[in-house]
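> Could you send the Cytochrome c biogenesis protein CcsA prediction when you get a chance?

Sure thing. Input:
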Amino acid sequence: MIFSTLEHILTHISFSVISIVISIHLITLLVNEIVGLYDLSKKAMTITFFCVTGLLITRWFFSGHLPFSDLYESLIFLSWGFSIFHMVPFFKKDKNHLSTIIAPSVIFTQGFATSGLLTKMHQSVILVPALQSHWLMMHVSMMILGYAALLCGSLLSVAILVITFQEVIQILAFTKNNERNNVLRTTSFSSSRNYYRSQFIQQLDRWGYRIISLGFLFLTIGILSGAVWANEAWGSYWNWDPKETWAFITWTIFAIYLHTRKNKKLEGVNSSIVASIGFLIIWVCYLGINLLGIGLHSYGSFTSN
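Output:
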């Protein structure tokens, strides 16, 4: 009863605090002069991280096993992973908006995990035989951390596409409506704005590449450890289960991203497009298959509960 109450309190505190964090980020995007709000968001995100960490530890002690057994627990762990990558830019001295782009992912996973759709999963149950293995921690933790990193990195790529598309529209509108007597006045302002926009895009691209590279490493380890686990549990390293198939598709998409990122002719917008496609593929692999409850991985699904 005590653990259940503590879990309930930590869940609502973390959800409430991250909601405040997002509000602060939106305000700081509009009003850059309010530095105090940005500092407050750093402290609030730290509180969220420790609340989610406490939630996972409480769930671990309360259930008697690692909190990776169902969709609810994996969503909480995914939210924990998002909160880590959300705080990474805070270690930079200069103020940036990378965390603003990543923050909604935390509230989305927290909101979905605590929604009425997964109420039955809030009650801890005994692990099914397939999950009673020492490979549980290695495989599931690496996969979810990989998803978290790849999703965060992909969001930065989506932001690059949005900014680039907006810039193209503005250039077209400027060319159409440009008047000769405004050329000198607007050119200086436009070049200054384009410089800072270019710097911001480079920052997004640099951080996106780093985070996706880390996520790709996690995903690779997760797939390999999962193959070994599958051989022990089902007698085959690969069964072309829907979850396995989509995980392989996800791995392939981001392998293509890393290739395009290394190719000078394809980097930039092209690699961002690939990463944006990967963003959708990950949600199909992680959430879509679980919601459908099909294949050998149905024990972690929504419909099986």
